[in-house]
Amino acid sequence: MGNPRRSSGALILLPLLLLTFICLTYSSAAAAAAGARPGFLYTRTRGRCTPQFWSSKTEAWPRMVPQTASVSNVFGPIALERFRSDLTLLESATRNDGASNPFVRLLHQGTAALLNSYSRRPRFPFSPWQVKTLFIQGLVSESAAARRAQQFSAANLACS
User: Fold this and answer.
1) Where in the sequence is the signal peptide annotated (predicted)?
2) CA-CA-CA-CA torsion sign (65, 69, 71, 75)
């Protein structure tokens, strides 16, 4: 006969391995059912409310704000003071060149916030009217743009 300590250790280890296998299988199946790509121990998911998500065209945009709508048509003529007249919402969601420009960050996060306000109600904390009003208030100065961009960013991340 073998060593009794060795066989009792194997008897404890076998159920632990089986339990670990079941948990990993279940979590992978749950992640796949939720639309995430399954990973071994860590699955990175992209937020469903971020500008990156909306620019990926994974989900249909709300009818009220088509991808080809101009920023000035959606946010009002005051946006013409800061942005090109032909700049579309899709372009503004796709942009990632505004790390140092608070107005570009406001446009980037504000576009996602507007899309979320139409498609993620009641989970999203702002109505479309509130997003447009806050966006226009952010166009007043660089510090106001930075504050509003941060506010929209926090709401977009929390919505995910």
Assistant:
1) 1-29
2) negative
Cβ atoms within 10 Å of 125's Cβ, excluding its own: 17
The CA-atom distances, in angstroms, between 147 and each of 103, 106, 144 are 10, 9, 5
pLDDT, tens digit, 9 for 90 and up, residues 21-32: 676 666 555 555
Question: Residue 42: what pLDDT?
Answer: 45
pLDDT value, residue 43: 43
Tell me which DSSP letter residue 143 carries.
H
Mapped onto helix, strand or coil, the DSSP state of residue 31 is helix
Provide DSSP, 76-129: -GGGGGTS-TT-BHHHHHH----SS-HHHHHHHHHHHHHHHHHHSTTTSSS-HH
Give the pLDDT band of residue 59 (cuts 50, 70, 90).
confident
Q: Find the length of the chain.
A: 160
- Rounded distance between C-alpha atoms, residue 77 and residue 94, angstroms: 21
What three-state secondary structure class fits 70?
A: strand
